[in-house]
Amino acid sequence: MRYILTLTAIAAAVAATSPQVRGQDTGQSTGGGMLSTMPQGNYECALPGDAASAAYDVVPGGEFRLGAASSYISPKGTGVYLLRGDVLTFTRGPKKGERYRRIGANQLQKIDANGGRTKVLCTRLGANRFSED
């Protein structure tokens, strides 16, 4: 019994010192948190432009459509995503392994392989229902 109480106390101490529990923002999300979904619709990904030309430059082939049951369609095929906390990860299909941080109700920012934010922003264009037009 004493062994179980000791392990419980150690687990509580470790949990209490975790940055997420203390409410500190480390700048990089670990992808922890509640599971949820993004609003359904068409998302277009773009890089910021400059003052001398267009306001943004669309990323060719970067668009996708999020649908029901955490599914998506991209120009290369269909798959599934997982939204845990504020991190969206494509878990199956042609975009498998790509990660994005949710930065608004309808906007995602691409995360690079090292967990850093990139300049690529994906924005929902409309609330179109998921279909295979």
What do these coordinates show?
The chain has 133 residues and is mainly beta. It has a single domain (29-124), classed as Lipocalin (Beta Barrel), CATH 2.40.128. It has 2 helices and 10 strands, in the order ααββββββββββ. The chain has helices spanning 2-16, 19-22, and strands spanning 35-36, 41-48, 56-58, 64-66, 71-74, 77-84, 87-92, 99-104, 107-111, 117-124. Strands 2-4-5-6-7-8-9-10 form an 8-stranded antiparallel β-barrel. The chain is globular and about 70 Å long. The chain starts with a helix and ends in a 9-residue tail after the last strand.
Number of domains: 1
CATH class: Mainly Beta
Structural class: mainly beta
The largest sheet is:
8 strands, antiparallel, barrel
How many strands? 10
Concise summary:
With 133 residues, the chain is mainly β. It has helices at 2-16, 19-22, and strands at 35-36, 41-48, 56-58, 64-66, 71-74, 77-84, 87-92, 99-104, 107-111, 117-124.
Structural topology:
Layout lengths: L1 H15 L2 H4 L12 E2 L4 E8 L7 E3 L5 E3 L4 E4 L2 E8 L2 E6 L6 E6 L2 E5 L5 E8 L9
Antiparallel strand pairs: 1-6, 2-3, 2-4, 2-10, 4-5, 5-6, 6-7, 7-8, 8-9, 9-10
Main features:
mainly beta, Lipocalin, 133 residues, 2 helices
